[in-house]
């Protein structure tokens, strides 16, 4: 890709292989990653409008190396959750599976890796999710100022998910930390650091950390050390961040499928000559260059226009395109989203299906409702999605703290049915058996993997 800076000088992406640190780790894990899949490609001649870009066809051969063997483990958490369930036939069934052998399942989708305890979108987090049996791995995709795609949950979250504010790169942030003459941090609530503020080389020098920041901090250390008490910093010592190319190579070597999410830019597009359509196309082309078949890729977006672009320009990859849904993007004008009231929905499920979308991914609370007496049921939204022939996946389990107080946003409207950690297994069961979801994103994939293995899901 060619990106122009403000003076008109072209900035080209770095041609880089997998970093030696990553290769060393992978070899230690008995995993092989071919260097060919990491080679750089170029999008040339990006115009100032979003409708035109010229793509140089990939020239690299497809990946042919065999998938490496992988040891799977549940750890202790699934057993803790099952033991914590209220007495029920489901609890008895799940307890009867306690001696089962863990195995990989596509029903278990790693949400940013395993960020309940590992820094999200880092090497260690990804490997942990594979070890827990997740069959599909997510990379949220953002871009650097020299045109490289990298794995970050948002274009503007480097200040909370990496150590950037403790490095000289903080000076390049859109809103850098301000330290007064007394050494006091004065703008903790306003700091903003974007992937587009730095180059890919700069990005690779950063260290991922647990996603957190203290907006009231008066120094950098206090700003960074804000991990929620129900998470941990025990596994935050390495924090190796990855580009999309590196992520693809790692996921492939782990035998996992791919679900990249195109994150909405926070900069005005075109960005120094880089159009929104070029961004959409670059995501798909990165998988093409790596030789990943379309059947193994589930590109995602909260923006229907991104899905439309892939439907019109990359129909093979768009077959598995996933439209992500919550109240932020699917609430009708002037309404408050109600999962049981179609008049509050921006698009009908029939309209979404007619648009060419095959898979939707609503937040889990949109798909489950309660009868008011503690019984979980499919919502009207879930029932209409099924009636219109849409495949459903959902997000994100294990993202809340202890559930004794209802679980917060991810369990909206379910307070009468959620009062202990074990209730998460009841939610999974309704999603799987009554809603009929094809997969569940989780911040701790072992929980979903245990359920799926017990039920015989592949």
Task: Report on this structure.
With 458 residues, the chain is an alpha/beta fold. The chain has 16 helices and 15 strands. The strands form four sheets. Strands 5, 6, 7, 8, 9, 10, 11, 14 and 15 form a nine-stranded mixed beta sheet that branches. The chain has a two-stranded antiparallel sheet with strand order 1-2. Strands 3-4 form a two-stranded antiparallel ribbon. Strand 14 (391-397), helix 15 (423-435) and strand 15 (439-442) form a beta-alpha-beta unit. The longest helix has 14 residues, at 276-289. It is globular, with a radius of gyration of 22 Å.
Helix and strand topology:
Blueprint: E1 3-4, E2 10-11, H1 20-28, E3 43-44, E4 54-55, H2 77-84, H3 89-95, E5 105-110, H4 123-131, E6 134-143, E7 149-151, H5 158-161, H6 200-204, H7 220-224, H8 244-253, E8 257-262, H9 276-289, E9 300-301, H10 304-313, H11 315-318, E10 322-325, H12 349-354, E11 359-362, H13 364-367, E12 368-370, E13 376-378, H14 380-387, E14 391-397, H15 423-435, E15 439-442, H16 446-455
Parallel strand pairs: 5-6, 5-15, 6-8, 9-10, 10-11, 11-14, 14-15
Antiparallel strand pairs: 1-2, 3-4, 6-7, 12-13
């Amino acid at each position: 890709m060619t990106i122009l800076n403000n003076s008109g000088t072209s900035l080209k992406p770095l041609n880089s292989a997998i970093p030696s640190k990553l290769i060393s780790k992978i070899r230690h894990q008995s995993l092989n990653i071919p260097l060919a899949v990491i080679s750089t490609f170029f999008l040339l001649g990006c115009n100032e409008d979003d409708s035109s870009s010229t793509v140089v066809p990939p020239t690299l051969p497809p990946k042919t190396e065999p998938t490496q063997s992988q040891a799977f483990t549940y750890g202790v958490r699934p057993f803790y959750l099952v033991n914590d369930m209220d007495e029920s036939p489901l609890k008895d069934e799940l307890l009867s599976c306690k001696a089962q052998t863990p195995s990989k399942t596509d029903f278990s989708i790693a949400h940013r890796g395993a960020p309940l305890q590992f820094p999200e979108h880092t090497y260690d987090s990804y490997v942990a999710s594979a070890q827990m049996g997740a069959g599909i791995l997510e990379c949220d995709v953002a871009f650097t100022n020299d045109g490289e795609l990298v794995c970050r949950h948002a274009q503007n979250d480097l200040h909370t998910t990496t150590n950037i504010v403790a490095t000289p790169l903080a000076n390049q942030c859109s809103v850098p930390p301000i330290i007064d003459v007394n050494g006091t941090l004065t703008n903790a609530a306003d700091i903003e650091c974007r992937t587009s503020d730095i180059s890919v080389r700069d990005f690779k020098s950063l260290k991922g950390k647990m996603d957190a920041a203290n907006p009231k901090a008066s120094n950098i250390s206090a700003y960074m050390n804000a991990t929620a008490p129900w998470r941990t910093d025990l596994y935050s010592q390495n924090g190796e961040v990855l580009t999309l190319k590196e992520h693809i190579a790692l996921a492939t070597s782990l035998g996992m499928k791919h679900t990249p999410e195109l994150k909405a830019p926070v900069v005005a597009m075109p960005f120094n000559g880089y159009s929104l359509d070029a961004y959409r196309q670059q995501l798909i082309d990165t998988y093409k260059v790596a030789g990943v078949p379309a059947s193994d890729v589930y590109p995602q977006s909260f923006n229907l226009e991104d899905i439309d672009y892939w439907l019109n320009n990359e129909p093979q990859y768009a077959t598995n395109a996933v439209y992500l849904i919550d109240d932020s993007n699917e609430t009708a004008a002037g309404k408050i989203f109600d999962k049981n009231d179609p008049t509050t929905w921006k698009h009908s499920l029939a309209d979404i299906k007619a648009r060419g979308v095959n898979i939707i991914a609503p937040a889990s609370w949109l798909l489950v409702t309660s009868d008011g007496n503690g019984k979980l049921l499919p919502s009207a939204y879930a029932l209409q999605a099924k009636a219109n022939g849409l495949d459903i996946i959902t997000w994100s389990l294990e993202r809340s703290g202890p559930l004794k107080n209802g679980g917060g946003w991810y369990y909206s409207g379910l307070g009468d049915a959620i009062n202990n950690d074990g209730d998460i297994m009841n939610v999974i069961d309704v999603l799987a058996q009554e809603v009929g979801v094809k997969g569940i994103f989780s911040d701790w994939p072992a929980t979903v993997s245990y359920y799926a293995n017990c039920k015989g899901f592949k």
